[in-house]
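Re: the multi-chain job from yesterday

Posting the exact lines I submitted so nobody has to dig through the queue logs.
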Amino acid sequence: APIPGNADHGQVLFETCRGCHAIDGYRNAYPNYPVPRVAGQQPDYIVDALKAYRAGKRNHPTMQAQAASLSDQDMADIAAYLAGHGHTQ
Amino acid sequence: APIPGNADHGQVLFETCRGCHAIDGYRNAYPNYPVPRVAGQQPDYIVDALKAYRAGKRNHPTMQAQAASLSDQDMADIAAYLAGHGHTQ
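And the result, structure tokens for all chains:
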């Protein structure tokens, strides 16, 4: 079963992610690409995506770098934060 | 600039997608994987993802099959529907 996440710790971890995931209009200036909205996303998908980035199965360079530093517990914490009260704006 | 989408047509197109994207708890029974929540997702990301599936750059088999049948306009329509009033449940 998925690891229970600690949303408070997830919020701390997510601070780093705001640079892209919390921008207005969800379109990053440089490099110019559409950023997915993760607030309210369902937790198993967030964990699945982060693990895929960590394993190099999903190939966004910034995301791979971010995910490389996250433990399974960190990922569960971030997922819990985003699912429950992810206010990205 | 992105093609303006027709949300009404997008809603019709999205009916096919409910089988996975609207299930309770967002975890598909078979094959067992976490389904991303797309209601409320930002439109450019939806179009970007669908185009990546259509081009085979993102490799989920079911999604590639679905995206193969969608035109750019269809994708914009679905994105408009999901961004604005995507009630998947």
